[in-house]
Structure formats: C-alpha cells, structure tokens
Amino acid sequence: MSISRIHQKLGTAGFIISIVALVAALGGGAYAASGGLSGKQKKEVEKIAKKDSAKRPLVAG
Question: Three-state DSSP class for 60?
C-alpha cells in the first residue's frame, strides 16, 4: 500500500496525526530500550508499584 493511498483515505489531518503517533511510539520504545531511567528513578518506580499493589486485594479470576 503506497503512502498516497493512505493519505487519500485518511485526509491531511488524519495523515499528519498518524505520522506523529508513529514517531512518538517508535521514539518512546527506543527511549525505554536505551535505559531511559536512572537507578534512582527505577527504585522510585519499584517503590510506588509495591506500595500500590499492597493496597489492592487479589481477585480470583
């Protein structure tokens, strides 16, 4: 499928939004894969996750 066919189906605004979303998704994935968090930030995230999971009871399902 060529880019011009996609552009015709989505229109200009939809095409621009889809390109921006694609770039953001790829950029976010690359940032996460490169170890975007420092050691201190990772510890904070783990602390928050443990604290939040302790509040919620486990539900069988």
Answer: coil
* Burial profile 29-52: b = 16 or more Cβ within 10 angstroms, e = fewer: eeeeeeeeeeeeeeeeeeeeeeee
Q: Span 1-27, mean pLDDT?
A: 81
Q: Which helix (H) or strand (E) holds 18?
A: helix 3-33
The amino acid sitting at 48 is I
Chain Cα centroid distance, residue 43: 20
pTM score of the predicted model: 0.42
Residue with tokens 């921006």: 20
User: Which residue type, as a one-letter code, is found at position 9?
Assistant: K
Contact 49, 57 (CB under 8 A): no
Whether pLDDT at 60 is above 80: no
